Amino acid sequence: MAIRKESFDNWAARYDRHIRLDEIGEAGQICLNESKVLVIGTGGLGSPVALYLAAAGVGTIGLVDHDRVDLSNLQRQVLHSTQDIGRPKVDSAAEKLQKLNPDLMIQKYKDYLNKENALEIISKYDIVVDGSDNFPTRFLLNDACYMLKKPLVFGAVLEFQGQVTIFTQEEDSACYRCLFPEAPDPALAPTCAQAGVLGVLTGIIGSVQASEAIKSILKIEEKGFGRHLKNRIWNFNALTSTAEVLPIHKDPDCPLCSREKVSLDEFNYDHFCEYSV
Amino acid sequence: MAINVKLPRPFRRMTQGQTEIVLEGQTIRELLDDLEEKHPGIQAKIFSENNELRRFINVYVNNEDIRFLNGLQTAVKETDKISIISAIAGG
Fold first, then answer.
1. C-alpha distances out from residue A171 to A75, A152, A217, Å
2. What are chain A's domains?
3. Nearest CA to B90 among A218, A99, A238?
4. Does B43 touch chain A (CB under 8 A)?
5. pTM greater than 0.90
6. Is the ipTM value over 0.85, yes or no?
7. Looking at beta carbons, which residues of chain B come within 8 Å of A245?
8. pLDDT in tens, A62-82
9. How far off is chain B from A226, nearest CA to CA, in Å?
């Protein structure tokens, strides 16, 4: 259990609005306090994800980001401020998160996620939230999380559109390769840097990701309190304020999750690199 | 038969800005052929060399993935809700 600097009274006060919920209560809050979540990226999606997980009392948050804060980030990456321009994002993010919740343990990874470090980093956490910004990282994360059986909360944005789902790694759970086995032609999938993104959309999508992560930690579905987005994708359009929930089927021929034994070395992540930012 | 189809937003670069379009056809294949008629070149982007829909695009008829219906031959009618979603990776 995470060491708490605050007294029980302070703990009860800080998490009062959670503890009042029948679906969470003191036991659920302790579950959150003991949980370890890895957040990939501290940008548009990673910012709201990490902020809400820190506020919710997640005990340990790992932050993976190789990047530095740029002025063009600040329209949506709410973890960072103007005075942080030029600083490593994980440093800027960790500082804000620690102020929000002094009991939070933060592990910083000032690095790219790659074939060499992915399994080692991910293995230390209970659940992973994907706030990355390119296809190679998304496929690598998917594969590594499948191999380690770590739930992966997927979220992605572009322009006015966002998508969220969770790959729980249960036997009947689809994976990202079941949903989208290949990356698009660059003409049909420009990056946010090329095409733009509505800043607040990252807040909406990241918040839904944080909600899915919290529900997974609390085992909300297993307890019969609700449903998460396993085998379903939430597709949101901010221009029309409409959303649809579409099914994801587990692919019986999936090159990854139809097999029990797989290795990251079987997949080539470099060939997607032309699509990355 | 004319059916209203919602396209993924990134498609608008190839559809002169349209993200919703009325297409003619009795099957998904015919609708996508009509899309090609109206916006030549789009099929080269979304179909493989084997003339199959590439796997970064999912087509749903009434919220069901056509790969689990009758694929491109899935029959459609005017009242069907047709959604096409494309993989995106921004974060």
1. 40, 14, 18
2. 18-275 (3.40.50.720)
3. A238
4. no
5. yes
6. yes
7. 63
8. 999 999 999 999 999 999 999
9. 21
